[in-house]
Specification:
The structure is a homotetramer of 228-residue chains. Chain A is mainly alpha-helical. Chain A is built from nine helices and no strands.
Chain lengths: 228, 228, 228, 228
C-alpha cells in the first residue's frame, strides 16, 4: 500500500480527492428510502377464503411494528440530514461509521418482521425474544450514532463553519438516553412483552421530538432560511 | 431541549438550517419510485404444471389492482411535483406532514395485494372488506394531502413567490371530492364488490385529469418554460 | 377545472411551471435502477437437503431469463438517457407517455418470472404461453417508445436545440423492427418454445447494438465532450 | 446504422452527446443502494410457535452471509466512487463494462441466500457448492473491475486531469490478488466448507483496507479538500 508510485503526488492529485459529504448523503438517502418502503413487504395479504376481515384484524401486531419502524426510519432520515448539514467533507473514518449506521438501518425490516410474527402466533417467550432482538438492533444503531458523534468531535475540520463546538455534547446525551430507554423496554418485556412492544415502537416519537430540527421548530415557528 | 448551549446563536448558526424543499422532494421521489416498482412483486408466476395460461387469466384481479395502484402512485408523483414547485423551503411541520403522506403511499402495496387476493379466491364478504381497506387507505392519503394544503395556507412564507394565494382552495376541494368518491366506492362494495373494485382503481384517472398540471396542459398546448 | 380562480394569472404564475425533463429523468432512473435490481428476487436458493448443486443447475431457465431481462432493462436505461439528452422540457403529454413506458418496464420482472417458472416445471403449452406473455409486454413497451417518438415529432419545441429533425424517423424504424422480432419470437414459440425463449432474451443485444449511443461510438472511438 | 441521415452533423449535434460520468454514477449508486438493502429480505422471521429464540440462533449462517455481502457491496460502492472521481466522461465502452459490474453486483443477493440456506440445512456437498457459487460470482465481479481498469488504461482521455498514469497498475494487482483469494476459498471449501464461508465473507475487509481511499486515509489523517 505504501509503495504506490503516486502516493507522493497527493497534493496535486485532484483525481483522488475524498468524497464530499453530498455523495455520502445521497447514498444514505437512497438506502433510507428503500428501507422505509421495504417494510410493507412484511404485511401479508390474507389468503384464507372467507376470513379476510378476521385475518386482517388478527395481524394488528404487524401494523404496530410497521408504524413503529416507519417512524424510526423517518426520524433517522431527519436526524441524518440535520447532522449532514453540519458536515462539509467526509473522510474515510466517517465513511466507515456511516456505513455501520446504514448497516443497522438496513437490518431494521428483520426485527420488525420477527416482532410482528412473534406477537401474532408466538409464545410469551417468543414475544420477549422478539422485543429483545429489536432493542438489541436499536442499541447497536444508537452506538453507531455515538461513534459518528465521537468521531466528529475529534475531527472538527470535517464540520462546516458555524457549527457550535458543543453541539455533539447534547446529541451524545440524546443517544445515551435512547440506549437507556431500549434497555428498559427489553427488561420490561421479560415481565410483560406487550409493554416492551409499545415502548419500543413509541421510541421514535422521543427521538423525533428531541431532534435538533424539531426543537428549533418549537422555538421558532418561521423557517430561518426564508428571511431576506 | 431548551437548555442547549447553542440555542441562542441561532441567527448565526448556518449549520443547523432547516432542510430546503429540494432534499425532501428527492427523498419523496425515491420512496415513490420504489413503491411504484414494488407493486409488481404481488403478481405471482403460476407454478402449476400445464395450467400457466389458465392461472395467468385467473389472476386478472391482480392486474386490475396493479394498474390501478400504479396509476395512483404515478398521479401522486405528478401532484407531489406540481406542489413542490410551489414550495421554496420546508420546515418541520411540513416535513412531518410529508412523512405522513409517504407513510400512506408506502402502504399502498398492502391493500393492493389484499384486493388482488380477495377477488381471486375470496368470498363476497372478503371482497367487500378488501375494497373497504383500499378506500380506507385512500381516504387517509387524501387527508394527508389536506393536512399539507391546510398547513401551507397557514404558512405562506414557505411558498415560492408567484404562487396564487387561492391555489390551495381548489386543491382542497379536489381532495374532499376524492374522499367522497372513495366513501361512495366503499358503500357500493357492500352491494356489489366488483363495482367498488372498478371505481377504486379508476379513481387515479380522476385525480390525474384534474391535477393542476393536466388542466394547465389542456388550456395551453405549449410548455411555458420553453418560451424565450 | 376551467373555473379555477387562478387560471387567468397563468402567465405570471411562476409556481406552476411544468416539470423540467431533469426531474422526469431522475424519477425514471430510480424506477429503472429498482427494476434491474428486483429481478434477482426471482432466483430462489435451493432448500432441499443434499440437492443444492442439482437444483442450481436445474434453475438454468431462471438465469437465462434473468440475464435477458437485465440486459433489456439496461438497454432501456441507455436509450432513455440518449433520448432525454435531446429533450429540454417535459410537458404533460410527455409525462403520461413516459409513465406508460415506466409501467411496461416495471412489469418486466413478472413475465421474466413466468418464463423462468414455465421452462423449469411447465408443459410445452406453458412454455409457449410464457414466451407469448413476454413478447406481449415487450411489444407494449415498444409501443410506448413509439408513442413517445410520435409525440416528440409533433412537439419539436420540447427538444433541445441541435437535435436533427429526422432523428425520430430512424428511432421509430428501430421500434417497429423490434415489434416484428417479438412477433416472430412469439410465433416460433408455438413450434419450439426454446427458440422463442432464446430469441426473446437475445433481443436486448439488437436494441443495444443499434442504439444511437452505440452506433455513435462505433463511428468515433473518442468521446466528443472531452474535447477542449 | 451507418445510413442515419444525421450522422454527418455529429460535431454540431449537442443533443446526442455521450452521457457524462455523473449520470452513470448516479444510476450505479441507485443499484448499489438497492442491492445493499435487498439483502435483508433473505433473513426470515421464525414462524414456529415457541421456538423463536432457537430459530433465530439457528439462522447464524444467514447473519454471517448478510454481514459479508453487506460489507462487500459497501466496499464496491466506496471503490466505485474512488474510481469515478478519476473519470471525467463515460463512453459506450465504459458504459457496457460498468453495466457488467452492476450485473455481477445485482446478483449478489442470490449466492448470499444460497450460502445461508446451505449452511443452515444443507449437506457437506451443498455447503461446498454454495461457497463455490459465491466465489464464482466474486471472481466474475473482479473480472469486470479488471475489464474497466484495462479499458481506462487504453482510453486515458476518459480520465480527469491529474490522475496518475500508473494508478491502474496497482488497482489491477489488487483485483488479481482478490481473484486468487476467492480461488483459494473455493478450494478450501472442498476440504472444510466453513473455512470457505469465513474466508469468503471476510474478503471485503481485504478490499476495504487496500482501497485507495482507505490507504490515503492511513497516510494522512486530515482530508485534503478542507484546506483553504
Amino acid at each position: 500500500v505504501r509503495t504506490r508510485p503516486w502516493s507522493d503526488v497527493a497534493s496535486t492529485d485532484t483525481g483522488s480527492r475524498l468524497p464530499e459529504s453530498g455523495r455520502v448523503e445521497a447514498f444514505s438517502d437512497g438506502v433510507l428510502a428503500i428501507v422505509i418502503t421495504l417494510l410493507v413487504l412484511d404485511l401479508h395479504p390474507p389468503e384464507e377464503h372467507g376470513k379476510v376481515l378476521h385475518d386482517l384484524l388478527h395481524q394488528w401486531p404487524g401494523y404496530v411494528a410497521y408504524l413503529g419502524s416507519f417512524a424510526y426510519a423517518g426520524v433517522i432520515w431527519v436526524n441524518h440530514h440535520q447532522l449532514f448539514t453540519r458536515i462539509a467533507v467526509a473522510d474515510v473514518g466517517l465513511l466507515w461509521r456511516n456505513l455501520a449506521l446504514l448497516l443497522a438501518t438496513s437490518m431494521l425490516p428483520f426485527p420488525t418482521a420477527v416482532l410482528a410474527a412473534a406477537f401474532q402466533h408466538g409464545s410469551q417467550a417468543d414475544k420477549t425474544t422478539a422485543v429483545m432482538l429489536y432493542c438489541c438492533l436499536a442499541t447497536v444503531m444508537a452506538c453507531t450514532w455515538l461513534a459518528i458523534f465521537q468521531y466528529l468531535c475529534g475531527h472538527p475540520r470535517l464540520l462546516s463553519s458555524g457549527t457550535p463546538v458543543n453541539f455533539f455534547v447534547s446529541e451524545r446525551a440524546r443517544s445515551l438516553l435512547g440506549i437507556g430507554f431500549y434497555v428498559l423496554a427489553a427488561v420490561l418485556s421479560l415481565w410483560q412483552p406487550l409493554v416492551g412492544l409499545l415502548l419500543t415502537t413509541a421510541m421514535p416519537l422521543f427521538y423525533g421530538l428531541t431532534s435538533s430540527g424539531w426543537s428549533r421548530a418549537a422555538a421558532q415557528t418561521e423557517p430561518t432560511s426564508s428571511r431576506p
